[in-house]
Design goal:
Elements lengths: L2 H5 E12 L5 E12 L3 E5 L6 H8 L7 E6 L2 E2 L5 H11 E5 L10 H12 L4 H14 L15 H13 L5 E5 L7 H18 L2 E5 L3 H4 L4 E6 L2 E2 L6 H4 L2
Parallel strand pairs: 3-8, 3-9, 6-7, 7-8
Antiparallel strand pairs: 1-2, 1-4, 4-5, 9-10
Helix pairs in contact: 4-5, 4-6, 6-7
Bound molecules: adenosine-5'-triphosphate.
The site of adenosine-5'-triphosphate has 11 residues, from strand 2 and helix 2.
GO molecular function: ATP binding; ATP hydrolysis activity; transmembrane transporter activity
EC number: 3.6.3.-
Protein name: Lipoprotein-releasing system ATP-binding protein LolD
């Protein structure tokens, strides 16, 4: 295995996702890509082009109709439902446009939940780690509040803390700033950039937000279910 291969955390080979039916609906058409550890990758493209569908496939929340997805070297097509759920819990963190925090739980309890499900830490360690994560994200004084007692930006930060709880290899974010004002959006961008830089977590984010998108190391453009390869720059090739 070369040095480059060892840094690869996601490899998709010719993935296709078609919704079956009398008239099959193609969502993703023959996408191949690879993403390395510690990369911040943006996924952009027109509305309805298949960005979320692709992210859900890469996050093992959906299964390709054909093609293969390797996650941290493991061929995920060989895993059953239970094994896929375990990989999601251990290796992936999710942040969505709508936070999907549990309404009746405090910030602290929401962040503790993935660690409790994984069951690798003692209750005391779980609580301590959740407190540190929330504190790091500037939510030290909001730990005992429920989601409806927080601002949109604060809720999104709790969702990021929850996504980071099990120290995932990869965070998948679908429009993480889609619902936020400019200041909260800049804050979320800063936090995710820091996670990439300091923990070498890989972040893949679908976004329409140009201010957020500039934080990426690179952008994958999706058009009509396919990766669009940018046209060569005629100015530079004209010499
Ligand atoms: N369950 C479904 N049933 C029918 N059509 C679907 C379903 N899921 C997605 N689609 C369609 O597939 C296409 C791709 O959807 P997807 O949500 O992946 O696009 P997107 O690029 O993320 O869009 P947006 O930027 O608007 O969120 C769209 O035309 C969408 O309407």
């Amino acid at each position: 295995m070369s040095e480059d291969d060892s840094r690869c955390v996601i490899r998709a080979e010719h993935i296709v996702r078609t919704l079956p039916g009398a008239v099959p609906v193609p969502l993703v058409r023959d996408v191949s890509l690879s993403v390395d550890r510690g990369e911040f990758v943006m996924i952009q493209g027109p509305s309805g082009s298949g960005k979320s569908s692709l992210l859900y496939l890469l996050g093992l929340l959906d299964v390709p109709t054909s093609g293969k997805i390797f996650l941290d070297g493991v061929d995920t097509s060989s895993l059953d439902e239970e094994e896929l759920a375990q990989v999601r819990l251990e290796k992936l963190g999710f942040v969505f446009q709508f936070h999907f925090l549990l309404a009746e739980f405090s910030s602290l309890q929401n962040v503790m939940l993935p660690m409790e499900r994984l069951g690798r830490l003692s209750p005391g360690q779980i609580r301590q780690r959740a407190e540190v994560l929330l504190d790091d994200l500037g939510l030290g004084d909001q730990m005992h509040k429920r989601p409806d007692q927080l601002s949109g930006g604060q809720r999104q930060r709790v969702a990021i803390a929850r996504a980071m709880a099990n120290e995932p290899l990869i965070i998948l974010a679908d429009e993480p700033t889609g619902n936020l004002d400019r200041a909260s959006s800049a804050n979320v961008q800063e936090i995710l950039s820091k996670v990439v830089r300091e923990r070498q977590t890989t972040v893949l984010a679908v976004t329409h937000d140009p201010h957020f998108a500039i934080a990426g190391d690179r952008t994958i453009h999706i058009v009509d279910g396919r990766i669009e390869v940018p046209a060569p720059d005629v100015r530079s090739s004209a010499g």
